[in-house]
Amino acid sequence: MFSSVQQLGGAIGVAALVTVAERHGGASAGSADSAGFSFALTIAAVILVLGAVLIAALLRTDRPTPAAASTDDRISTADQG
Q: Is the pTM of this model over 0.70?
């Protein structure tokens, strides 16, 4: 299932970037020039960076490490005793 979704997403992404390249290239219909593909690859790079920033922000958590949790436990039990 994951492989199918990955293949479909890749095909749609390539189709979208080729469409952007053709529209931006200004060449005759059916042949995008290198300026159009350069623009499309720039857009792909921007999407990649935005995705990386989003993933980094979502994966960042402020959970205590096991060493810090055990230190806090020792302090709280010492206060109770």
A: no
